[in-house]
Write a structure and sequence with these properties.
Blueprint: H1 10-19, E1 30-34, H2 40-53, E2 57-63, H3 73-82, E3 86-91, E4 99-106, E5 109-122, E6 139-143, H4 151-164, E7 180-186, E8 191-202, E9 210-215, E10 219-228, H5 232-238, E11 253-255, E12 261-263, H6 287-305
Amino acid sequence: MLRTVKARTAAGKRALKKREPQTIEEAKPAVFIKGTTTSQLVMSVLKDLYSLKRPDAVLFGKRNEVRPFDDPRPLEFFSQKNDAALFVIASHSKKRPHNLVFARTFDYQLLDMVEVGVEKGVPMEMFKTTKSAVGHRPLLVFSGDAWDSTDELRTLKSILLDMYRGATSNDMVNLAGVEHLICITAESAQKVYLRTYTIQLKKSGTRLPRVELEEMGPACDLVIRRCRTADTDLWKAATRVPKELKPQKEKNIERNELGDKMGRIHMHKQDLGKLQTRKMKGLKRGPAEDENEDEEEGQSKKRRED
């Protein structure tokens, strides 16, 4: 493991401070690793996934012997050395051909990972269409009812969301800056399809443009293999919300399941006799009605006195 050193310069102190936990995190960097043996298919998919993640990604040029299901220590070493939390490892063997492992760490410790096999893949270079610019955040669409059926699919969905969601931003989104869409479809508990499209905004004759999708690649069919879920205590520490980000409670204000604000207002009892109604000539009170009302009030007052 890397030894802990103290910063001696101002630049070193800034670098160590940048590695400390942040209240609002930036985009998490990812490391793409080639195993000892790989195939052309799995390498093309690995490079395309790296292209979608850039510039917050590092692709190792040399091969590394990393088997996270057998020994997670090399992965934790790379996590601490590169200050990265996300990993994609490509390998190929007779037992597990065209293999990809999506892994995630927390505090330089292995959190969870899922292993998939690439059954079919079409690289990005085979699609002769317009590609999105580097560094733009994509739209993520998870379609299918099977995503919450197994732990493997839940883990894969969480890791992919963590990898491609980008940095946290405000609620304002520039429509022209959304250039591509990543669609991941779970056909069953074992089969997943990954497709990527560019978003074309065309004239529609109205204020809202007409949106068309054009496939840009990569397109690959994945099959679920092994999975390692997160430890309970480590997952609780990883998902802890900082005190600064917790919403402050407001008196008599609640939120429903959809996030809408629900308030409670306390009002005095309303006197319907003083309610202002529509003024109509036919309903106007005359002098005789006022005299009769005064006589009735005087008689009722006299009875109470008696």
